[in-house]
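User: Show me a protein chain along with its predicted structure.
Assistant: Here is one chain, sequence first, then structure tokens.
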Amino acid sequence: MKSEATQNLKIIEAKIQELLSNLHEISEKNTPLSCAQNTEDLERSIRSITSQLADWISAKKLQQCLILKNLADRIRGLGHQNGKRFVHKDTRSVGIRFPGGRVIPLIASYWVEYRSEQAAGGVFLSLHLLGVYDHCSPLLVAEIPKLCAALASLKEAQDLLADRGCRVDIKTIRNIMKRFAKRARLCQKTQAHLMFSGEKLSGCRAVVSTDGGRVRIRKNKRGKRTKKKRCRYSTDWREPKLLIIYVVDEQGRMNSTFAPVIDGSMGGPESIYALIWVYLQSLGINQIEQILFVADGAVWIWECLQALRGLLKLRGIDCRIVELLDMYHAVQHLHAFIALKRGWGHKKRSHWINAQKKRLRYGKIDEMFDALKSACRGTRSKMLLREQEYFVKNRERLGYAAMRALKMPIGSGAIESAVRRVINLRLKSPCIFWNEDTAEEMLLLRAYYKAGRWNRLKTAAYEGGIACAA
């Protein structure tokens, strides 16, 4: 390998010297600038050369590392940790794409997993250990998913990369994005503690909230295809579920020193429950002073919380969890209740609503229920009785006065905002249809990006890739 790699290093070094010469020539040349366009053209030519130079220097450093013996020792150690044996098969030339857009061939070892009498499962493990996946450098393999999460479409990500000199087709962008998300999910399932190393909520007051959004999922239909031989498909609405975990300070405001945890899933309530458990366990649930679980009145949310309580009891974890119905959803149901009351004028309805809102806010729950019963007396309206039943079911979750005294939130505005920023502004649209797996992956990327935790996700994707390869 060394002879091939050494020869490749000479080629790379010659290219670096050529680019340095070009850069020096531009620097020394007396170029007259007469307008904005001339200046821009000069800047673009300089940036093009420096971008190429950065790619070739990075390639040189990677090639030098691929020769080192300790990399082979790390690969064998990795296999030993997982009960496997990796065998060096041969060396191959593999093209690696760098952020500047250049695809530069490197000489790397090709490893296979040894199984009894045959070798199978070949992979460039040495490149994976250096963070090179999908034939892209670590910087590019993290930048592409970030652009996909931040921008409105993959086409916008492609255009922005092209402006930087890196031309990648949509299919490649999609594949890199999907594999990055899958590696991060794998780390979350197998090594969740790595995603929050050094972050423990010891003595903190945490708030957990969850809610659902709407996304259109594309599913192919069986039967006759279109004239262009394409599958017909349905586009039903589905409810992706989102969660947020954040810390509040002494004044009850979101603590800016701890970035909120936002994540989501296209699965059912059990999926979001599993995510909540993973995150709270990773953040040290047994050390948290108090957890406030605030949400709207959806039945699946409270069933999810009951499952969490059961798991905590089974594990012997003593943690104080307080359930709270979102104050603003409760007020909405009060308005819906009184709108169904016939024979009341606008003034009377307004007076009644204001009175009940004050009772909710100041903890006079019994008086509010008396007012509900009084308004329902003698009625046969099923809708009116249903609204009353909503408050009966959530009676134990109306402790707004106690929460205000402790300076804790009484609303679920954080999760409502997260749903808007993560789902509505990226995944939800009348003309956008998602495959379910792609929607799941975009939820993860978008949630971490909007939470300000992208670097954590990069670490998880790297560790997940190593675990997958090993």
